[in-house]
Amino acid sequence: MLKCFEKILTFIGLKRPMYEEFRTIYVNHKQLQSKDQFHEEKYSSNHVVTSRYTALNFLIKNLLEQFSRVANFYFLIISVVQLGIDSPVSPASSFLPLVCVMGATAIKQAYEDILRHRADDKVNNALVKVIRNEALVDVKAFQIRVGDVVRIHKDESFPCDLVLLSSSEDSGECNITTANLDGETNLKTVYSVEPTKPMRSASSICKSLRARITCEQPTTDLYKFKGNMVVRHKSRPYDKVTLSVKNLLLRGAVLRNTEYAIGVAVYTGQETKMQLNSQHVRPKKSVIERRLDKFLLFFMIALLIESIFCTAMKWGYATLDGTVTGAWYVSAETATPWRVIQDLLGFIVLFNYLIPISLYVTIELQKFIGSIFFGFDLDMYFEDPETGEKLRAKANTSDLNEELGQVQYLFSDKTGTLTENKMTFRKCSIGKRTFCDDNGELWETEGCGGRKLSRRETLDGQELLFFTILALCHTIRVEQPKSFDRDSAALAPNDRRYTASEAEVYTYQASSPDEKAFAEAARNYGVIFHGTESGVSILSVTSDGEEVIHRYRILHVLEFDSDRKCMSVILQRSNGTYWLLTKGAESSMLEKCSTGDRDSVVQYSGELALEGLRVLVIAHKELTEEEYRQMSLQLLSAEQDVANREERLIEAYKSVECNLEAVGLTAIEDELQSGVCETITALRDAGIQVWVLTGDKRETAENISLSAGHFTESMQRIRIIDQQSAEGCRESLRCGLEEIETGGSPLSVQYCVVVDGQSLQFLVANEYSELKDSFLELCRRTSAVLCCRCTPLQKARVVSMVRNGIKPEPTTCAIGDGANDVSMIREAHVGIGIFGKEGRAAALNSDYCFAKFRFSRNALLFHGHLYYVRLAVLVLFFFYKNVAFITAELYYAFFSAFTAQSVYDTLFLTIYNMTMTALPVLLYGLFEQHLPRHRLESEPSLYRNIAQNRKLWWRELGGWCTIGLWHSVCCFFGVAAVFLVNDWVGTNGFVFDVYAFGTVVVYCVLACVTARILIVTFSFNVPALIGLLVTAIGFVLVLCIYSVSTVTLLSNHLTFLWAYFDISLQPISWLLLLCVSVLALTPDIILRSMQDIRTDRLLRRRGTAGELPDAGASEFHYSADVQQGTFVNNGFERADRTEPDSHSGPHCSQAAGSSNSVQFSSKHTFHTNEAFEQQDRV
Question: Any binding-site annotation on 389?
C-alpha cells in the first residue's frame, strides 16, 4: 500500500522518483550481448519545464502563494468577517482592493509565465537528429530518451547532457562554448573515448557499437562527472574506459568550429545539470523587509487595542444614562457575548484600513523599476580592451536594492577582484640563481631585488629544464591563424615544420592566467609550445640559431584542486622514458620535494612575496617504466571506481606527487585594478569594514593590501598565523586585545588583523565558540582584516561567522570573481559578482554584478544610498498617510455613540490606498534624489547617516505617525468645529450630512498627504509632477462618475448620489480645505525650514560640503544645491572625472574614477542601448 501511494505521488510530480546510486545506460538501447538480460530503467523525459504554473493549477497555486503574505491573508480574513457580521461598511470596501492588488500581481505573474511557456515550447519542439531504427531521423527535442544517440551540427545547442562518442575531427575532439552555463566565452575542448572515435556515421554506430555506460545520478556540479563505459569488440575482450567531465557535453553549450558531434544522452529534461542549477536558491530578505514585518505587527496590535477600547466604550460609557444613547432614535441593546464579539469585529473592520493593503505591491513595483536604473548607469559600464566585450552593470534580483545602502562589512576576494587577474611573468629563481624579465628578455640578477648582471641569450641545462617544464605543465590550447592551418593541413604532424615566426601569432587559451603567462614567457625565451595534436604536445627549442622539435605524449593530467594546491602532468618522451612535471603553491610543494635546492626556494619565495608577487614552485621527477606502470594502474583503478572516485583520486595523486626534485620558482605579477585604492579608502570612510579573503601567501597578500589601500603604513598589524592549536589562537587573541587596549586612543593608532588559513580552522570552528567571540571582538576594534591561505569553504564560514556572531546582526556584502567565491557570495546578505577572466560563475550566482571592483563605490555609496532612502521614506509615508486618514474614524466614534458608524463613504475606504495616494509616493520612490551624485560619491561619510537602518528606527516611525495624528486632528476637528456650531453653512439650503462631512474631511486629508510628499521631496522632476496631476484629475473623475452612478456596488443606498457636485458648489468646502490644510501643514513647513537653515549654516561653517546633520530627522536631509534654488536632476547625473592610472606599487592615485552616467532629469531623457552604442562609437 505504501509503495502504491509513493508511485501515485511520483506520477503526479509531488515526489521525485527514487533511483539507484548509479544509472546504467545502454547506448542506442542495445545490449552488449544478444543473450544478455536487457532491462532499461525509465528516466526523466527531455521535456524541459521552466514555467511555474499550468492552466489547471494557476488559480490555486497563485492564490496560495499570495495569501502566504501576512497583509494579503489579513485582508482576506477581514473580508470574510465582513460577510458574517453586520458590517459598518460594505464588504466591497475590503474585497475590491484585495482583488485589485492580487489581480494585478496575478496578471503580472501569468504574463511572465506565458513567456516561459513559449520559451519552453520553442526548446522542446526544436528538431534534433537522432538515430532511430538504424537511420538518422529528425525528432523533436522533448522526444529524446536516455540512451539515444544524438548528432549535433556546428553552432547548434546541445538538447541534453551527452557523452561524446565521436566528431568530425580525426582526433574525436570538439570545441564548445558554455556561455549559457557559466558565462565563459572562450572555447573549450571535449574529448571522445578512444574505442568510439572512428564511429562517425549512423550505420557504423548501429552495426558496430555495443556499449553500456554506468555513471552517477545527476548532480548540480557543472565541473564534475564520473562514470565508466564498457565497449564490446568482435575481436577482443570488452574495453572498460573511464568517463569524466572532459567527455561530457552539457545542455545549453554550443558546438563551435566542429562540423558535427555525436553523443549518447545520459541526462535529460529536468535532470540535466543546467536545469538542476536553475532551481531557486535560498531567498534573502532585506533589512527593510524585516523591519516592515515588525511595523505591521505593531499596527495590528494598535488596531486591536483601538477596537477593544471602542467596544468597551460602547458597552460601558455609552450605555450610561444621559448619554447619546438616551435618544429616542437609538434602540436599546442587550450585551450578549455574541453581540459584543460582533461589535469588536465591526470595529476591527472599521479600523483595518490602518494597514496599507497596497504597500507590498508598491514596494515590488518600486524595486523592480529601480533595479533597471542600475543597469543604465554608464559610470558602471566597461568595455574590455582585449576582447571588445561590452559589460554593463546588472541586477540579478530587485529584492535587495536597499540592502546596498546598509552594508557594514565587505568581504572581498583578491585575485581578479582587487587585481586584474592578468598575470605577467616578472622573476624566477633556478637553483641559487635569480632572473628577471625585461621587455621579453631574460636577465640574470644579483638576488631577487638586485641589479641586472647579464642577459641570457641562450638557456643552459637547468634554465632549459625550468622553462621546458613551464611550457609543458599545463592544459593550454593553442589557437593558430587560419593561414597556418590551411598551409599545413595536408602535412602529417611529423612532417610539419614549427617555426618561431609562426609562434609569434599564437593565442594561448588557458584555464588559468598563470599558465598563459608561463607559456608566453617560455616562448619569449626560445622554448615554444606549439599545441597538442592527437595527444602529443609539440615543443620547439632554439639552440645555436636552430629550432629543435620535441614531442611529448600526454599520458595523464592531474588537475589542480584546492586541497593539493598543485597540478601535474605525466609525459612520455620520444625515447620512451616517462616524466612527471608539477607546479604548485609553496606551502604544499615543499613537503612534496625531497631533492633539489629547497633552502633557496624557501629564501627566495619569502623575498619575492614581500614584493607582492605570486610565487609558484616548479618541480619534476623521472619515472622508471615500472614506476609509471604502477602509477598508471593506481590512477586507472581510482578513475574506474565510480562510487569513490574523488577520494581515491586524491590518494592516488598524493602518492604520485612525492619525492620530487625542486627546480626553482616563478614570480608573476597580478596588476592592481585602477581605482581600487580610492574605492577601499572611500568605503572605509563610509563606515564599511573591508575584509580581504585570499588563498595567496601571507607576504604577497599583505603587500597587495598595502598597495590597494586596505592597509596603511601607519596601521599596527596584529598577526594570528601558523597556529597549530586552539590554545595558541586563544593566546594570540589575548595579546592582540591587550595591545589595542594599551595602545592609546583609536583615533591616534589604527590596527589591522592578519590571519592565515591554518589559524582560521580554529577561529571559525563551531566547537570553539569562545574563540569566535574573541576573534570578532578583536576584528571590530580594528580598521581592516586580511585572511590569507583561505579555502573557499573557509571564506563562506568567515562571512557566516560575522553575519551570525555580531549582535545586532550586521549587513554583510561579499564580492568575488571566480567559482571559488560562489559560496561566500551566497552566504552574505548581498552578493556582488565581478565579470572575471576565469568565468562568470560568480556573476551568475550573485545578486548584482559588474566589471570592476571600483564600481562597488558607485553601487554602494550612490545607488545603495538612494535605494535605501527612497524605500525607507516610502514605507514611512504609507503608514503616515493611513494614520492621517483612518484615525478620523476613531474620533467620530465619540460622536456616534461608538456604533461603528463610518464617517467616510465606502468609496473613499476602497480607493484611498489604490488610487488617491499611491502614484505620488511610488514616483517619489523611483526618482527622488535628496543629494546630488557628486556629493554622495565624494563624501563617503554621508553613508554613515543611513547605517544600521537608521531611517526606520522606531523613533522615525513615531515621528511620522505623530505628524499623521496631527493632520488627522486638524482635518477632522477643523471641519467638525464649523459644523458643530451650525450645520446650515451651505448655500441654497444645502445641509451637510455625515457623508458630506466625511467628504470634506477626505478633501483635507488628501491635500495634507499630497502636500506632505512635496515637502519631503528635494528633486522635483517631470514624472513626479505628472504623477500629482494624474492623481488630482483621476480623483475628480472617479468622484464625478460615482456621484452620478445608480449602481449599488459599494453601498445598499445611494447616499452619495450627486453629493460631489453639491459639495463642490459650496464655498465653505473650499474655504475649509484651504484653512485646515494651512493649519495642518504649518509644523511641517516650519520643521523643513529649520532643517534647511541648519544645513546651510553647517555648510557655510565648513566652507565645503560636509556631513549632513544627524540622521534623526531622516526626512529632512537636505542638499545645499536645492536650497540655493537649483533643482537636482533626478536619476543619474553625468560627472566627468579623470580616469585613474593603473597602479601596482605601494602608492595609489588620488584621482577619482571615470564617470559617464545615465541622466534621467526633468527633460525625461533615457540613455539606454542608444547611449551605449554612442559611447562605443566614441
Answer: no
The cell numbers describing 435, all together, are: 632572473
3-state secondary structure 160-214: CEEEEEEECCCCCEEEEEEHHHHCEEEEEEEECCHHHCCCCCHHHHHHHCCEEEE
Q: By three-state DSSP, how is residue 638 classified?
A: helix
415 assigned ligand-binding residue: yes
DSSP output for 248-284: EE-TT-EEES-SEEEEEEEE-GGGSHHHHTTS-----
> What nine digits make up the cell of 1017?
521631496
Parts of the chain with a pLDDT under 70? 1-19, 34-38, 179-180, 182-186, 234-236, 278-283, 317-333, 481-501, 544-545, 562, 744-748, 837-839, 982-991, 1046-1054, 1102-1178
Write out the CATH class of domain 126-278. mainly beta
Cell of 1094: 541648519
Residues in CB range of 455: below 8 A, 6 or more apart: 441, 442, 443, 444
Residue 277 CA: distances (Å) to CA of 114, 220, 1005: 22, 6, 51
Chain segment 332-344, per-residue pLDDT in tens = 667 788 888 888 8
Residue 140 in marked binding region: no
pTM of the complete model: 0.76
Residue 531 Ramachandran class (φ > 0 left, ψ -120 to 50 alpha, else beta):
left
What is the three-class DSSP state of 925? helix
614-469-613 Cα angle (round to 5): 10
1121 assigned to a ligand binding site? no
Identify the architecture of domain 422-480+507-670 in CATH: 3-Layer(aba) Sandwich (3.40)
| Measured distance CA(474)–CA(905) in Å, rounded | 79
Please give the grid coordinates belonging to residue 773: 567571540
3-state DSSP assignment of residue 531: strand
From the CB of residue 1062, how many other CB atoms can be counted at a distance below 10 Å? 18
CB 593 within 8 A of CB 619: yes
CA-wise closest residue to 610 among 718, 707, 712: 707
The CATH 3.40.50.1000 domain(s) of the chain lie at 371-418+673-862
The three-state secondary structure class of 516 is: helix
Burial of 943 (0-12, 13-18, 19+ CB in 10 A): buried
CATH 3.40.1110.10 in the chain, residues?
A: 422-480+507-670
**CATH 2.70.150.10 domain span(s) along the chain:** 126-278
Q: What is the pLDDT of residue 321?
A: 53
Is 821 annotated to bind ligand?
yes
Q: Is 1102 annotated for ligand binding? A: no
Assess whether the previous peptide bond of 808 is cis (omega < 30° from 0): yes
Residue reference for cell 537511420: 135
Q: Which three cell numbers stand for residue 146?
A: 536516455
- Ligand-binding annotation for 789, yes or no, is yes
696 assigned ligand-binding residue:
yes
Burial pattern 1149-1173, b for ≥16 Cβ within 10 A else e, equals beebbbbbbbbbbbeeeebeeebbe
Contacts of 599 (CB under 8 A, 6+ apart): none
Closest CA to 421 of 848, 851, 795: 851
**Residue 636: helix, strand or coil by DSSP?**
helix
Beta bridge partners of residue 527, listed in sequence order: 541
Side chain identity, residue 211: A
Superfamily of domain 371-418+673-862: HAD superfamily/HAD-like (3.40.50.1000)
Q: Is 820 annotated as a binding residue?
A: yes
pLDDT at 17: 58
Binding site annotation covers 837?
no
| Residue matched to cell numbers 530503467 | 41
In our burial notation (b when 16+ CB lie closer than 10 A, e otherwise), range 485-511 reads eeebeeeeeeebebeeebbeebebbbb
| Catalytic residue IDs | 413
694 marked as binding residue: yes
Length of the chain: 1178
